[in-house]
Design brief:
alpha+beta; Alpha-D-Glucose-1,6-Bisphosphate, Chain A, domain 4; 22% helix; globular; START-like_dom_sf; START_lipid-bd_dom; START_lipid_transfer
C-alpha cells in the first residue's frame, strides 16, 4: 500500500501558489507580532489545522536592488559563499522552466541534529514583484539516510518588492528561532545580496538559468521518481503525517489578492515560513539542457569575504 501525503508531492506551480504567498505576507489577522528591531519585523502564527508554527519576516534593504536579492536567493553557486549552515547541496532536475528539485543538508543550532531536505523550489517574476516558494517532496535517489534527520518544509517563500528609493523541536528553540536566528539570517542575506554583483562578475557572469531557461543543463524530472520510497513510507513520522490527514489552511483557500501592476524598482523582503514542527529553514537552489548526474556544491571552509561586509 502506498501511503499518500498530498502536500509532499511535486506539482507544477500555478499563479495561485504565488498569490497565496502574497496574501499570507499581507494579512495581519491571526498573526502575533513578536519582534521589531533594527529594521526587521517578525510575526508568528500556529496553523489552524496542524501544530505547525509559521514565521513571517519583513525587512527593507536600502542598499540592495530587488534583482540582486532575487539572484542571490536563486544562484546555486553563490549560496555556499554566504550561507554557513549549508553542508551540501545539489540539484536533481527540473520539473518545468521555473521549478527545480534539489537536495540540501544543513547544520542546525544545538541541541538540534543536522537535517537534510528534498525540496521543490519555484520562482516567478511578474514585472513588479519577485517570488520564490518551496516545499518538501520525495525523490527515489535521495531517501532518508543515516546521520541526518529528514526535515519537512510545508511552505516557505520570499516575496521581493521594490520600494521607493522533522523531529520535535522544543518551544524554547522555536522562540530562539523567532528572536535570534530569523533576524540574523535576514541580515546575512542582505550582506550577501550587496556583494552578489561583484561575485557574479567573476563567476560565470552570463549564466542565469533561472532567468533564461535555455541555459539549463539538468534533466527534466519524472514525477514517477518522486514517489516516497519504501523506507519513507515505513517511517513513523511519514505514517503519522498520512494518518493525521493534515489540512493546511494556506493550501485550502483561493487567494483573494491579485498581481500588482508592473513598475520599476532598493528592495523589500517579505518572508513567510511554515516549517515542520516549528524549525525555520529557508533553502533554495537552481543551476543550469542535459546532465544525467546532479551538480553538487560543497561548502567552503570560510564564507567568502567578497560579500559586502561593510553593509550588515
Amino acid at each position: 500500500m502506498v501511503v499518500s501525503v498530498p502536500f509532499l508531492e511535486p506539482r507544477i506551480p500555478e499563479d495561485k501558489d504565488f498569490l497565496l504567498l502574497k496574501e499570507m505576507v499581507l494579512e495581519r489577522e491571526n498573526w502575533t507580532f513578536d519582534y521589531d528591531k533594527a529594521g526587521i519585523k517578525i510575526w508568528s502564527r500556529v496553523s489552524q489545522h496542524a501544530s505547525i508554527k509559521m514565521v513571517k519576516v519583513w525587512s527593507n534593504f536600502p542598499t540592495v536592488s530587488s534583482r540582486n536579492l532575487y539572484n542571490t536567493i536563486l544562484d546555486p553557486n553563490y549560496r555556499p559563499h554566504w550561507d554557513p549552515h549549508l553542508q551540501l547541496g545539489c540539484q536533481i532536475g527540473y520539473l518545468n522552466y521555473n521549478s527545480v528539485i534539489s537536495y540540501y543538508a544543513v547544520s542546525c543550532p544545538p541541541p538540534l541534529r543536522t537535517r537534510d531536505f528534498v525540496l521543490q523550489t519555484s520562482w516567478l517574476d511578474n514585472g513588479s514583484e519577485l517570488f520564490v516558494i518551496n516545499h518538501s517532496v520525495c525523490h527515489k535517489d535521495y531517501p532518508p539516510k543515516k546521520g541526518f534527520i529528514r526535515g519537512i518544509s510545508f511552505f516557505t517563500g520570499y516575496l521581493i518588492k521594490c520600494t521607493n528609493p522533522q523531529g520535535i523541536v522544543p518551544a524554547w528553540i522555536v522562540n530562539k528561532c523567532t528572536q535570534i536566528f530569523a533576524p540574523r539570517f535576514v541580515k546575512q542575506l542582505e550582506k550577501a545580496a550587496f556583494g552578489y554583483q561583484e561575485w557574479k562578475s567573476q563567476n560565470n557572469p552570463t549564466l542565469y538559468p533561472w532567468l533564461f531557461p535555455k541555459q539549463r543543463q539538468l534533466p527534466v524530472i519524472s514525477l514517477a521518481d518522486c514517489r516516497p520510497s519504501h523506507e519513507e513510507q515505513e517511517s513513523s513520522f511519514f505514517k503519522d503525517l498520512a494518518n493525521a490527514n493534515i489540512k493546511l489552511d494556506w493550501w485550502s483557500r483561493e487567494p483573494q489578492v491579485r498581481f500588482a501592476p508592473t513598475k520599476k524598482c532598493s528592495s523589500e523582503l517579505l518572508v513567510s515560513n511554515g516549517q515542520e514542527n516549528k524549525i525555520s529553514t529557508i533553502t533554495d537552489r537552481a543551476s543550469n539542457d542535459v546532465h544525467s548526474a546532479p551538480h553538487t556544491v560543497k561548502l567552503p571552509k570560510e564564507v567568502s569575504k567578497k560579500s559586502g561586509s561593510k553593509h550588515t
